[in-house]
Amino acid sequence: DEFVVFDMAGFGRIGLSICYDAWFPESSRHLAWMGAELILNLVQTPTSDRAQEITIAKANAIVNQVFVASVNAAAPNGLGQSLLVDP
User: Fold this and answer.
1) Are 53 and 44 in contact (CB under 8 A)?
2) Which of 30, 43, 67, 71 satisfies CB 3.0 to 4.6 Å to 38 for a cystine?
């Protein structure tokens, strides 16, 4: 029910999002406005839309000029294919 960012000593400011949050550009944009340098998007996607989530992670990194880590669960609850995208 709120946007969350925190500072990680020696690294920078991290913004948190879960699963479907990434599909809404305003969520990532708001985390970036709050100073996030990395958006950590935790996912549990066992469906075929993982390919779209990968594209969305890349787009969010580019348009917000932040790193995006899209971390998907492994089988059987997810499809894996986690990635870290640079801006």
Assistant:
1) no
2) 67
